[in-house]
Amino acid sequence: MSNGTSDSGESTQLPVVVQIMADPTVSYASYQNNVPLLRGLSITNVTDKVLPDIEVSVRCEPEFADAVRLQFERFDPREMRRIDALDLKFRHQYLAGLNEAERGRVVVRVSSAGVELACTDHRVEVLAYDQWAGTRALPELLAAFSLPNNPAVDRLIFQAGELLATVGNGRSMNGYQSKNREDVWAQISALYSAIGASGLHYCEPPASFTNDGQKIRTPDRVFSGGIATCMDLAMLFASCLEQAGLNPVVLIKKGHAWVGSWLINTTFPTPTFDDGQAVRKRIASGELIAFETTVLTHRPRPSLRVACELGLEHLQQEDEFLFAIDVKRARIEQVRPLPSKTEAATAAEDQLSGGVADADVESPPALPPLDGEAFLLDENLRPDTPEGRLARWKSKLLDLTLRNRLINFKPTKIMLPLRVPDPAHLEDALADGQEWKFRPLPQIMQGADPRVAAVAAKRTGQDPVEAAALQAMQQKELLATVEPKALDSRLYEIYSAARLGLEEGGANTLYLALGFLRWAEDDRAEKTQLAPILLVPVTLTRQSVRSGYAVKRHDDETIVNPTLVQLLRENFRLSLRGLDPLPTDGNGVDVKKIWQIFRLAVKEIPRWEVTEDVYLGIFSFTKYLMWKDLQDRTQQLKQNRVVDHLIERPREPIGVREDLSLREDLDERHAPGDLLAPLLADSSQLNALSRAGAGHDFALEGPPGTGKSQTITNLIAHFLGHGKTVLFVSEKMAALDVVERRLKNIGLGPFCLELHSAKARKTEVLAQLRTAMEAAQGQTAVGWRRESERVGRLRADLNDFVRALHKRHGNGLTVRGATDTVIRYREWTPARMSWLDPDTHDEEALDRLRETIRTTQSVAGELGDLKNHLLALVQHTDWTNAWEERFLKEAALLEITASRLQEAAVAIAPALGIKLDAPSAALLDAVDGLIDVLLLAPQVPKGFAAHGGNAAVRARMQIIRGHGENRQTHWRRLAKKFNQDISSVNGEQLTKDWSAASATWWPRRWFEQRAVAGRLVQYAVDQKKPSAEEIPSLLDALRGLNMEDREMKSFEGHCLEILESEYNGPDTDWAAVQRYEQWGKRFEEAIGRFVSSSDETAMATMTEQLRKLVSAQRSLLLPAGVVSGGLTVFRDAWYGLRNQLAVVAELSGAGQALAGEPAVAGLPSRVKAIVGGWTSARRSLRLWCRWRQLRKEALAAELEAVIRALEEGLISALDFNAYAEYSYQNWWLKAVTDREPALRNFASVDHDRKILEFRQADEHFQRLTEQYIVAVLAEKVPRQQAGQKPDPEMALVLREFAKQRAHLPVRQLVHRITNLLPRLKPCLLMSPLSVAQYLDPAYSNFDVVVFDEASQIPVWDAVGAIARGKQLIVVGDPKQLPPTNFFNRADDAEDTVLGNEEDAPVQDLESILDECLGAGLPTIRLEWHYRSRHESLITFSNHRYYDSRLITFPSPVTNDLAVKLNRVSGIYDRGATRTNRAEADAIVAEIVAHFSDESRCKLTMGVVTFNQTQQRLIETLLDEELRKHPEIEQRIASHGSERLFIKNLENVQGDERDLILFSITYGKDAAGRMAMNFGPINQEGGQRRLNVAITRARTGVTIFSSILAEDIDLSKTRSAGVADLKNYLEFAVRGARAIVEQALPSGLEPESPLEIEILRALRGKGWIVHPQVGCSGYRIDMAVVHPHEQGHYLLGIECDGATYHSIPTARDRDRLRQFVLEGLGWTIHRVWSTDWWNDPGREIEKLETAINRRLTTSSSLRQAGPKAL
């Protein structure tokens, strides 16, 4: 393991510390067999800073594997991250082509945001292709160098076969097919001769090859080179044996290797086996041979027998032996051979081409006889067909091979031989109820006794031992033919085994075997076997450790060995008559008659006989009845849909497709009264009730401590309450007892019949039936339905609020989420939204709004400040390249025109007397207007130009012009008749004369009128007199002409002054004069436009200057004049600017805004600045147009207010998205709150009241539910009325009640009351064995079958029980212990006697749970973990095995060490007792100390060991202590059903205690060697055993271990169980640190803005507050640390956020969770988000009040002393 140092090796204080867990070597063999080089990385941030953007890179030098990169977003202060084994991608060709080892390294580099934080490396040796790493790596990789497919091996096999065919007596190379060890020996001998004949020479291996490894020659290279080391020869022989179908074993000791081979088809339990003594025992038993291979190079070659003797000598050197590699077991565990790389094939053929003429096949030595129980690898081979599955199940239930102790009896240590002179009398006495004690074999005439037994027998005619046995029987004692010292030990073993069988199997397995049949398989069999004949069930009792053992009759029926009967029937065609029923003699069965039946049946068979031996021991034959079920009732069993599916199509899905685990609608799905759950249940448990009630078959997964038994109890209660019958099946007594106690506690005990273990006795069964008969009549649950409705209403109210708070509306928002958003950004002023309806947007529409906002934000963020952006005036949205090109071109032109205008303005300013350095558009317009007037000035008479700007002058001129125009009008009337001189005629006088003439009489009138006309004619143009009709009109015109002439004459001087030469009297061009007037007016107006921009003095000066310009200096205004040119240039520049502004304004979309307000000064400069900005920001034009487009879309989407806020700089682009979201959600929250009554009317005080009432009502309803179910069941119990004749079944039961003895067997009783039993006992609690034992196969009318601990029940054990029901619920945990053959081996294996129970594999079997899960049975998982009072007790398991999916609850005391390691200086006695005495002593001392302490002994305790021998040692040592301290035994017994247990990994499942003591047992041996063999933990499924062991405690675990985590070298084992053990030991050592890392600075921040505000507020007031307290998915939102008690929490604070909402039911949220937390010692205060939103100040006051109140209470308790606490 390497840690974070620099490459130079100098230790530096780096921000990140890296530890590398990696193997020291890598090779092709490790690559091919999936051995990870990099087993893990540990990376720790040792700073107090958050490190962002972390990248971890791993590379190899040289590049034998590809580099790997891992990334994560942040690395919190003091956080440690573990990275599991990395699957490096090795380069196949590189490793395969490596001929010599190379030095390399693995380099790990950690960087943050591209900056290197740490770099460390791990040195590794890259091995050659054919190089074994030795013990530096996984030792079993040696099996990869066994190359059965090498061509040289094939040739050797051929030669050996030829040799066998020649001299082998008809034998062939057929592996184990003959099942004859002599044949196997012959094959090995033939190979030995074939290899020996090849003439190989020996060469020395490297001195330290066993540690450092060596290169191993392949078989073809061995023969081509002709030399070999011991390892080469061992692997050559292993390759040949493997190819021949035999199971080779390569044995390694210090400096040497040799080989072995199994003579039977079996293996060691693990690929690497390091127990030399166990290997020697296997050789001694005739199962294995081991032989020296280097003698093959000797001349002459020793025999194979000599080689075997040498091989055995190596094994005698205990200190030298290292390990054995079982190649077959390695293959089973997927260690594959290296691909062959053949070289020099011709040379190898030449080497092997020599004949084997001198070779021979040795005859085998005298092999020890086999006992028939050897484990054969091919025993389970059955075709995967329905018939094959049935055959396999049957073979598991009825074993007719010699492995079965019922037909091949062996006197193991769980068999006690008894000297019984009269077995029939003993049976009668036991049947009579007598209790018998034991007496050891007396030392009569033995040892120091000088008397001789033979002499005494001859003289007295009686055997002294026989006489002692008779005497013992007279005293009701049984003489055991074992030494006195061994008797107690033997009885203890039997007592323990019987108790274990009862607890684990539920049926009695302790019997007295009376009489044995000696039999043989055939005439040629090596030996005969014994089989017990009559089995009398008995019970072994012990009152205390100081009292002796006694045996008495068990209630079960005496039985003839059914396995023996079946063997005789099937294999020998022997049918025994007269045994059904068994003959009786009035007091039990007739033993002698039964023996006689057997004697007569076998009298003709040679070597067969009946003996009258008696043994007390463990015999299990109940599975025979299960076999009968399968054998005789296959079709009936298949009528059950689950059984049929498991037989016919187990790989197809079974059950509904619906996901049964969904429970979010549980409260809506069921009213409170629908689910009859008298025990408090969480939603996952209630969901199981719901699905079960709907008739579904399903698997209920229950991880440790999740309330499986509680759920089962509720399931049973629910079914019983609905009138259904239940068969509850559990193999383990502990699991069944828990359910049975719970049923009793809720009043259902009288209606449940327990037929498991001791409860299956006839008297017990009758007593249980009596309790049902006596169940009280008339029980009612008054108010149950009314209370159900009340709970429903309260629940609905609570759910309505939560639903309203967390309901996902059409737009995807929730009120709670919106509240968080509003709280987070409450310092902002929200933008006003224009919508009225909160349902305006659906989720898609809101997503579009958000997309618009996000896009707008990203574009705006890139553009920067929008308010003052250089492109602010550009409003164009549709960007194109063409547009941009034209726009920039026109903008550049605009800038030019602005510059021109500026220059022109500066040029004319002096002439005009106007300041034009920063002209506004209005000023420029005024100047433009003035220029128009000025340029016309030369066309105006100078006088008029000088004075025309005066309004009075223009008014007078207007009058004159009026007269002139009137005169011209009059003249136009006269001009047609008269010339100009007519104007001199007095028109007034002529008018009078005409009037007078017209008034006189005719003809005078004519003459006078003629006279007037005559005066006019002289002026007539045509000299003709006007007619009389024309004259009045002409005279009228003349009068007007005369009058206007007079007026004109009066103004003549003024006109000459003003109009100068332009005045021409009557002929003056009055239209021109009018134009002059208009010019004057324009001139005045043009000057007037400058009034607002100048003071009076400046205005007067400018006016005077302009008058001079238009009058005295008017020549300057002539086209050739200086001023005129400047004015023209200015006007053209101004027109050009205006036109260009229009063009650019249109292109940019800026409109009038481009020119700005007319009165604003500096237009040219401003335009130039704008265009300059545009030019400098030209690269942003495309983005800006996108912004304008997005802005337009946003305005169209009614987001104008938020856009304005962004444009006006009220919010930054960085915050724009959040601001828009906040504004929207603020509006929406108010709108939806106004609409929702549950939110609008919410008051936390009232809501808290409802929660309290709901808790009280729910609890009361539970009690009423108990009463309701009891009342329903009691009503069904038949009552016998006085004088009423009972029905036959009731009569039978009443007769049995009346009996004192000779009760009906339970099986018969149950069969005969099939109608009554469901009414009395609708629920049966049984084991699979007791189901077969007591329920007739025809009894299959259960509505529901429920299996508990189903992961431990084999399929073949379960099918019979499944078929007895209509519905199936399988409860268990696939992560816990599977069914194994452990108890079968413990019952009857010879290994127990030899101490070898760990040598043989603990075979995991198929469980009914796994089979159902594999068949796709719907699954429901329990998720709430209740057992552990400290979260650390379940943290490891939850993380490692359950993916942290268990809901666990933190403890308020964070500095308690719930898991701790007690280091013991112990030695594992590997070769002998397989125990660790120091650990056992330490555990016993702890037990004694615990139960001696009154304050501690109230806590229950259990002990778990890694193996059975350590368990027995602790039990033995504890017994010794209890003999010294009987008061401790009494305290232990006082715990009743939870008394102290001492168990091993295989049988602890289902148990739990407050405290668990854990003995690792394994460790370094006396020589200091540490093997990686931890018994069953090493095997497949070892991690499941560990999971069971470490999850048994409620309060604390203490690990007693002689080793630490670092003593376990994972490079030497592939076992997942061992890896987990190492990690768990590390977890225990780190203790509090491990808890704190996960509970506090884990990097988890508060879940919501509400929590952040609360956290800040409390910290601001000086409180230490930790957020997110806990280890699992459920955490307390925050907790206040006790100021006076370090490591303790004062108060937990919870909000109504995601965690609260994620809990699906009101009970979970508002009752159960707080109930659990308060049970752990928490005080919880809840903060409601709605209250905080409305008034955070008030809520923080309430919160601080709660904290201070809790502080006061805590201080009072502390002062009161520890008892108060």
Quick overview:
This protein has 1765 residues and is of the alpha/beta class. Helix content is 46%, strand content 14%.
General description of the model:
By secondary structure, the protein is α/β, with parallel strands linked by helices. Helix content is 46%, strand content 14%. Strands 18-20-19-23-22-21-25 form a 7-stranded mixed β-barrel, surrounded by 4 helices. Strand 36, helix 58 and strand 37 form a beta-alpha-beta unit. The two termini are 46 Å apart.
List the helices and strands and how they pair.
Blueprint: E1 16-22, E2 25-26, H1 28-32, E3 38-45, E4 51-61, E5 68-75, E6 80-86, H2 92-96, E7 102-112, E8 115-126, E9 131-132, H3 151-167, H4 181-196, E10 201-202, H5 209-212, E11 214-215, H6 219-225, E12 227-228, H7 230-243, E13 248-253, E14 256-262, E15 272-273, H8 276-284, E16 288-291, H9 304-316, E17 321-326, H10 327-332, H11 345-353, H12 386-397, E18 415-419, H13 423-431, E19 435-440, H14 453-460, H15 464-474, E20 477-480, H16 484-505, E21 510-519, E22 529-542, E23 549-553, E24 559-560, H17 562-572, H18 591-602, E25 609-618, H19 623-632, H20 634-637, H21 641-648, H22 666-669, H23 683-693, E26 698-701, H24 708-721, E27 726-730, H25 733-745, E28 752-755, H26 762-773, H27 784-806, H28 815-824, H29 843-863, H30 881-912, H31 921-936, H32 942-947, H33 951-974, H34 987-999, H35 1004-1017, H36 1031-1059, H37 1070-1088, H38 1096-1110, H39 1122-1148, H40 1163-1176, H41 1181-1196, H42 1200-1207, H43 1213-1235, H44 1237-1240, H45 1244-1276, H46 1288-1298, H47 1306-1312, H48 1317-1320, E29 1323-1326, H49 1328-1334, E30 1342-1348, H50 1355-1362, ...
Parallel strand pairs: 2-8, 10-12, 19-20, 26-31, 26-32, 27-29, 27-30, 28-29, 30-31, 33-37, 34-35, 34-36, 36-37, 40-41
Antiparallel strand pairs: 1-3, 3-6, 4-5, 4-7, 7-8, 9-11, 13-14, 13-17, 14-16, 15-17, 18-20, 18-25, 19-23, 21-22, 21-25, 22-23, 22-24, 38-39, 39-40
Helix pairs in contact: 3-4, 3-7, 3-11, 6-11, 12-19, 19-50, 23-24, 24-25, 24-45, 27-45, 28-43, 29-41, 29-43, 30-39, 30-40, 31-37, 31-39, 33-36, 33-37, 34-35, 34-36, 49-50, 55-56, 56-57, 58-59
